[in-house]
Write a structure and sequence with these properties.
Blueprint (H helix, E strand, L loop, with lengths): L1 H25 L7 E3 L1 H18 L3 E6 L6 E3 L1 H18 L5 E9 L4 E8 L27 H11 L3 E7 L3 E9 L4
Parallel strand pairs: 2-4
Antiparallel strand pairs: 1-3, 4-5, 5-7, 6-7
Length: 182
Amino acid sequence: LAQELKTISDEALRCRKIVSSLLDFARQTRPSKQLTDVNEILGHSFVLTRKQAAFHDVTVTLDLSGNLPRINLDKDQIQQALINLILNAIEATDPGGTITLSSRLNAPAGTTEVSIRDTGIGIPPENMDKIFDPFFTTVEGGTGLGLAVTHGIIEQHGGSIHVESTPGQGTCFTIRLPNEME
């Protein structure tokens, strides 16, 4: 009986997690934009995820460009997107691995670029076309909504998100956000 109750409890918690993720996905609201420092958001996301990284014995480093313009963003939404990517990178990276959070100005393209690069397991080529699809996951207990939500947030900001991955060597997600300042 105790084992059955534990199973019921575990499944109820799993259902709660799925419902919460579904609500986040469905609740995507229009960005409430204001002029924001991207490096500040990256730094705050780093602080919020460093204990999780330390728990997994993964080193996270910052490589932030100093010449970024303040751009029109919804700080909370962009932070949610970055945290989703950082937590995924932590999950995919073996103990002793590294994650680098970086920012840079791409003046010719009129964008600010943010990258999350890990030394993790990488994404198999057959999964690359599906990673932003709602409910696609390879993680046991995952909802498959984190990257879908992240993709939606970036698109609502007029940006784009790209991924490069080599199985066994790591993955890099690059977000490009327009340098609109109005």
